[in-house]
């Protein structure tokens, strides 16, 4: 009676390899199907006694089970390989298998299948003859001679715990050369890129064969190797002496009494690992050919498992490196699911936001981004998905747990799996300093624009006046115009001094020190042509200020009062009192005609001027000096109906 056949249905190579290795010594034969359609085809072509279904990689498991029940209703058991226990009709053995520890699940699976299907065969000889004749449907060890069965069993036992391809080569070579049937055996790796078979040299000192060479595939020089690689089928020559040129190391093999050679491909699915080459001292019997194929099949599964483990370890190492990079990155990083909830955050993001990791994970992105920024992020993701681009950048504002808003730049990438959007990744960078630099540059550009307007307008007016009076002076030779010319030149000089001060220093408060308000006001009054105007300081106070800049501020205010309030205007300077009685700033007021209503809203704009000579540049300088000191400036009406400018200090000043 033939042994029971177990159909393993899985699209995961690691699962297939684990199941096959676990059942290596069990009294069953394993048949592989990578997809549900292949499983149905296997069921139609031959008898199956048990089914292992990997629900994690095979869709529509209930539909597959229904098909199995329809095709082979006598099948005694279905084994559900997976963790989904929601459908008891599918996971018949899930309570026995799926709940075991990950480490012993394959062994537990083997025991369960053996118990369910029994050691006796339920497949009739006629059914077996109708089944496949490849290595997956052989009669197993029971049909082999004792010595060959013992060789296959010995190889299988030694390969169970192997974790290195080097050990695979050593075990195959040692077990085959230890018998009196075979002269030598070796394993060659298939280098697809170079198109070569490269023999593995795990113990070159113990080898008497000339292994220091490679064999080209595709040029026709090694037909035995080429056919094995191209067809994934067992190849052999029964009379090497007659065709030694077609056999790798053929002449050396003949010299050592070799009669036959066999090449078994080492492959699994679409992966070709190499070949297993055996040199026999006599012609190969059918049983020997079967035994070599069985050994090659077991070795192929072992190599597949080793490769998968290596890939998983490499992926794990790469993942650990990425995790370290993410955790040590200076920028905030996060992963959102498709609904916008935080799935991963790094330490930098928690530091930026003030939230703990637990406080962010599972929360929606709106916990730190406002609605407008969330909508902008959604729109960007839609754009990336439609365009096929990988990343894009958006500026947004991040709100911390304390309520502070931080300007940020976020680089966003979409996550797509099986053509479906599953989330997004973001890198958030604090751009506060950049915004500050941009603002400073913008202010500097505004100053340059103001300079241009000053040169084109404010200087042109007094210059034109002076030129006009000079022409009158030239025509009349009357000295009465000299004072008017001088006034125009003085006005130009004052404007030029303001412009040069801005151009030279850029900052309006560089060297602050305690200064007396009355003393600075008196000095500023001396620098201005005051005619019959008067200055009074109601109350002096000590101010932390850049004295030269404060002088320019007061000069411009005094000049403005005289130009627009009349030559006999009265100007007062005094302290602004806070509720507690201490000084919180100072004021400059006059009893002139007040500020023009039409320019009240643009009073400190350098482009705004009046027909009388211009308020623009002077009051703009006043605003710049105040801002440079950290003061706020307000223009209002004095109690006498004139102009009043109040300068309030910040609370820390």
Automatic annotation (TrEMBL):
GO biological process: one example: regulation of DNA-templated transcription
Domain of life assignment: Archaea
Q: Which reaction does it catalyse?
A: ATP + protein L-histidine = ADP + protein N-phospho-L-histidine
Keyword Cell membrane included in the entry's annotation: no
The residue ranges of the PAC domain are: 392-443
Biased amino acid composition, Basic and acidic residues:
116-125
UniProt feature, compositional bias: Acidic residues: 126-139
Domain called Response regulatory: residue spans:
5-117
For whether the record's keyword set contains Ubl conjugation, the answer is no
Tell me the residues on which 4-aspartylphosphate occurs.
Answer: 54
Which keywords annotate this record? Kinase, Phosphoprotein, Transferase, Two-component regulatory system
- The EC number on file is 2.7.13.3
Q: Which PROSITE patterns match?
A: HIS_KIN, PAC, PAS, RESPONSE_REGULATORY
Region Disordered: list its residue ranges. Answer: 116-141
GO molecular function terms attached to this record: phosphorelay sensor kinase activity
Domain named Histidine kinase: residues: 454-653
Q: Quote the protein name from its UniProt record.
A: histidine kinase
